[in-house]
Amino acid sequence: MLPRNKHRIYEILPGATVWATFLLGITLSFIKPIWVIYFVIIYDLFWLFRVFNFVMHLLISWRKYKTAIKRDWLFDLKQLPDWEKIYHLIFLPTYKEDKKVIETTLDNLLSTAYPLKKMIIVLGGEERDKENFLKISEELKLKYDNKFLKFLTTLHPANIPGEIPGKGANGSFMGAEAKKLIDELKIPYENIILSNLDIDTWTHKNYFACLAYNFLTVPNPTHASYQPIALYGNNIWDVAAPVRVAAFGTTFWLMMELARPERLVTFSSHSMSFKTLIDVGFWHKDIVSEDSRIFFQSLLHYHGDYRVEPIYLPVSMDTVTGTTYWESLKALYKQQRRWAWGVEHFPYLISNFLGDKLTPLRIRLITLWRAWEGTFTWATAPILMFVLGRFPLLVLDQESRQSVIAQTAPFTMEQIMMLTMAGLIISAIFSLLLLPPRPKEKRRFAWVVMILQWALLPITFVLFGSFPAVDAQTRLMLGKYLGFDVTAKKRN
After folding, report:
1. Which of 35, 225, 326, 441 is deepest in the core (most CB within 10 A)?
2. How far is CA 332 from CA 8, 445, 460, in A?
């Protein structure tokens, strides 16, 4: 069998298991409905355990977050004897963003608690947006060129064979151009920390000091990526309620994962050693989910000797929005589908792990399990709990309706769901604590809506959780590959 045919089988597997689960659930609901009711109750209990596990790890991360934002990281960094050797290389890939979005990000970098002359900024535009980018970049270069050690602009060529237009291809071009500059400056690669940021990312003022401190104090720092807390708060007061719920849900999921670093995979804006980026040959140019793929590239390159170090400081970005409520929901769906397209890593991993005898078998099996289980659960859990879970009760025959399990199942499921509300309540409280200051034009009691919006969680969980994940996995299964949808950034 040809390798490409094998790869297609691996692409089919995730979507096939999802659809097999749905079809099996529906079929058994007619044939053995009592079996399905038992399964759903056990599954709901399993999710109750996961919710409590989520809450526990979220509280751990919250405590570390509150400690981290109070710490004077630059002071602690300066106590290290070799701290001045560290340089920060910051990639800001952009496509069709207006000047104000880019300018606010650069202004934020100017306020960071780290020597600006130890920072190199790379602003990467696309030839597909050449006229707009060149005009904006020339204006920005005049303003910021003397603020940092270097302010480099790049223009990624269009229509290169084998590339998917997106952040991965642009980032690889930026990396090659930055390497030329760094070679001229004669800075050792191992002394450079690369932060690959979305163009709307505002870093905490102590982020780069904290990052450098961690880089200098953890073992084998070039064999690690560094993941901050991703907040979607820049425009949170201006977006639709379902968008806010999804944005906070993403933040809380990542915060929970930070407390379990053995499970961490890089997501969105993050940092890593520039030496590592050189070693792995930059980002793949033909994928959508470059943020997590670079972790797997590194894991494979170092044969399992690679990890993610949690950084308990936030970087804040825009959440999706649109000119109308409906456009905002469409943008949210597309964003979630793009994130769910991370399922493309599963065939990549299994193809590479099968011939890799140097990576320990345990690491290969655990990584493959997490890559599959995460995407499978994302697609199936909300539908199993909120939709298919009630279906067998509707199709029971009259005799089965008289059984004890059929009589008690609705009450049991309702009680389990009530207990899982603990996670919802804690999420609502934390969302208020993470909110940026209320804009003056917003009403005084607008925060009440921020609490009430969490009643939308079950609906959001299905419509903007399960559905886009099923969509992504079905597309991969059918070979209808997804391109890179750029999230629109706007400033009021």
Report:
1. 225
2. 29, 26, 10
Buried b (16+ CB within 10 A) or exposed e, 18-33: bbebbeebeeebeeeb
Question: pTM (2 decimals)?
Answer: 0.92
Residue-range domain boundaries for the chain: 1-70+218-492
For the record, the structure tokens of 458 come out as 């079950």
For 10, the 3-state DSSP assignment is helix
Rg of the chain on CA atoms, in Å: 24
Q: What angle do CA 233, 378, 268 make, to 5 degrees?
A: 40
CA distances to 37, 255, 282, 376 from 428, rounded to whole Å, are 31, 15, 39, 26
Output the DSSP codes for 262-274.
GG----SSEEEEH
Strand locations in 251-388, DSSP E? Answer: 270-273, 307-316
Length of the chain in terms of residues written: 492
Q: Which of 36, 21, 38, 13 is nearest to 383 (CA)?
A: 21
Q: Convert the pLDDT of each residue in 59-79 to its tens digit.
A: 999 999 999 999 999 999 999
d(CA 217, CA 209) in angstroms, rounded, equals 12
The vertex-92 CA angle with 90 and 97, nearest 5°, equals 160
Spatial distance between the Cα atoms of 248 and 250, rounded to a whole number of angstroms: 5
Residue 23 has pLDDT above 50, yes or no: yes
What pLDDT, on the 0 to 100 scale, is given for residue 1? 39
Tokens of 30: 């007619």
C-alpha span between 153 and 138 (Å, rounded)? 9
- Are 375 and 343 within 8 A, CB to CB? yes
What digits encode the pLDDT tens for the residues 109-154? 999 999 999 999 999 999 999 999 999 999 999 999 899 999 999 9
Chain-centroid distance, C-alpha 228: 11
- 194-209 pLDDT, tens digit per residue, is 999 999 999 999 999 9
Could you tell me if 241 and 324 are in contact, meaning their C-beta atoms sit under 8 angstroms apart? no
Give, to the nearest 10 degrees, the angle between helix 325-340 and helix 241-258. 30
The confidence score (pLDDT) of residue 4 equals 63
Q: For residues 238-266, give the mean pLDDT.
A: 90
Give residues with Cβ within 8 angstroms of 134, minimum separation 6.
Answer: 125, 155
Mean pLDDT lowest among 45-49, 206-210, 316-320, 422-426: 422-426
